[in-house]
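Work package 3, deliverable 3.1, input record:
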Amino acid sequence: MTPKQQRMLSVGSLVVGLVVVSALVISAVDSAGDFYHEIDVVLAGDYPKDRSFRVGGLVLEGSLAREPGSLELQFTLTDTVNQLPVSYTGVLPDLFRDGQGIIATGTMASTGTLFVADEILAKHDENYMAPEVAESLKKRGYEVPESQ
Amino acid sequence: MNPELGQIALIIALMLSLLQGVIPLVGAQRGDFAFMRLAKPAAIAQFGFVLIAFGILASAFINNDFSLQYVASNSNSQLPVLFRFAAVWGAHEGSMLLWTLILSAWTIAVALRSGSLPLDISSRVLAVLGLLSVGTLSFILFTSNPFLRLQPAAADGADLNPLLQDPALVIHPPMLYVGYVGLSVAFAFAIAAMLSGQLDRQWARWTRPWTTASWIFLTLGISLGSWWAYYELGWGGWWFWDPVENASFMPWLAATALFHSLAVTESRGLFKSWTLLLAIMAFSLSLLGTFLVRSGIIVSVHAFASDPTRGFFILAFLLLVIGIALALYAWRAPSLDSAAGFQATSRETFLLLNNVLLVIAASLILVGTLYPLFMDALNLGKVSVGPPIFEIIFITPMLPLVFLMGLGMHTTWRTGNLTAVWRDYRWLMVASVVLAVAGPWLFYGRPSALTAVGAIAAVWIMLVSLREPLAALMGKAQHSRARLGMNVAHFGVGVFTLGVVVVSAFGLEADRAIKPGEALSVAGYEFQLNDLTTGNGPNYQWLRGDVTVSQDGALVAALSPEKRRYLVQESMMTEAGIDARLSRDLFVAMGDPLGDDAWSVRVQYKPLVRLIWLGTIIMALGGLLAISDRRYRVRQKAEAKPPKTKTPQVAKGTV
């Protein structure tokens, strides 16, 4: 290959590569990315019916309930105004507790009143709150603690 | 010692780095030797003062000086002394100080080993590193001072985040930083080359070992982090595609591309401007990574907004560094390219493909990591880009890369003969197909198509990489250490890939409820929870499960998974019980009490998971072998001595 061809090859393959890169990411996120929806929006029935999505809020004080000895549990997620019942089967993260800000990923049950979570995230430390959740809560006048 | 002295030491270090950054640069431009010679002593003195500052902060931690705000927020008198030391870099301010310390350590390493470099090159390299120190030191002094006093002093500290109270944390961040920051050396060499307008094969020969050295640390640092996440985060994953992990992985990919490109520049004098661009890119990505993570812009947007000055400083510094470098590049690079050609089947082509694929992989991760930020900024919704997406977009460029690696590594420069390579290696290809399909089938069950392809890629690269080292061992062929190192590192890639493929395809995981006295069965292993006991650690209370694992009635392992409650921050931690063997890990982690004496547990069977970390260690060893190659030492010695003494060109006695 002559130097000119080499340069064409490298520039060409980079351009093609970057186009492919962007297309790949966009299509992957489009089909598999989990979008965040606020609780009131979900309760109004405005959520994706055929794919999983995320909701976030605080674990309502005293709402955690489970059959003794079972991995199935239910709790209520709140943005301080609206409340969404959530069911989950499995091991809860260490930082899950009353009043903690969490994010749940899953789908709505066909009844449209229960969120069936397949993943619960509570991260970092007790003051940390995912930015999405912090924003939803701030909108409703809740004071979000500042974390390091 | 008095913490104010630490601050004074930092101010002196800042003055010295200004001196180191400006005077030699002016000297090199004017040809003034006295000015240029200033670089080395200034660099050494700068290192000394940063070290003093670091030592003072460390002693404040060890001696529980809670009159310092940073110590009070990140340590506690109950914390074991090793963790008190590691707490120095447990939060933002101290980790920036560590960053700076490592930058100046690399700087004096260059200064002390630069004897064979022409004075104008070495002084420019040291000056660029000095200017980077100016940036980080002023960042610390103006926005992130760890020596701020607390009035009145706290009675005790708020403790180190329990997640970070682990021996691996003592070495993981420093290791990673040594890797990150080491890329600044390649960057400085690139800037020096562009300033001087000289970029020859000799330049590549100087730059290459430094790049490989920092790549070794980066590899081990990332691997340690993965290992730590595996056992300490408690849930058995080894990679989460978390923004923080991606931030360390992107520079790794760029650095990998860089030293492959440097190989072409060194051996053939080609790809010069591309090499420069990669050197700029690798360091820019590591800056971007460190600072984005540190500023919190990705992990949590509100933490970023809570200290706008820090974020603003970071952004300005990033733009300045990348902007100046790229402007210089646009101005100088076009005049550097040489006119040699090569054929489409030569090693040059394969290395070009390697570079393109690695850069694509790095850009994919960059786009995926920043995508949610863009979407949010454009009001298109808040989306999370999770592991399934990253896996798809990462495998796409990496799978072809691994196959091409096997072909490319034994082609020749300039006029590669692909038919000859294929003739040599087709039986290895057949062998790897057989092994990779039959092996999993025999041990784990029927593999899926993607698993089979992945396993073939892994076995193929392992077999191909064995050929030259085996020939050398049997005395049939002579290979340089650099060449052996290349083979070893690629073998490591194969080992790593095999681990990833097998554990992803055949790993099993079960969340179950269990009471003392009960047993559950996963992957043919019987896990029996015998008893639950409680007790006290130095700064936590524990609850420990006594678990025995048996297979076909024979005892295999005894595990003690723990639940810990750290007393200062009142936080719960999970310590997994792991029985590690080369062939598989058995993993038990305690969940929460379910009432009725029952606990939730997560039990996992992880076949070949150890190969993941073993593979990265082999890669790093390959790198080590490569930089110990004679050609990097001979050159050093031959040029360090005046030619009259007629030193033989053998590096006897040099280590």
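DSSP finds 20 helices and eleven strands in chain B.
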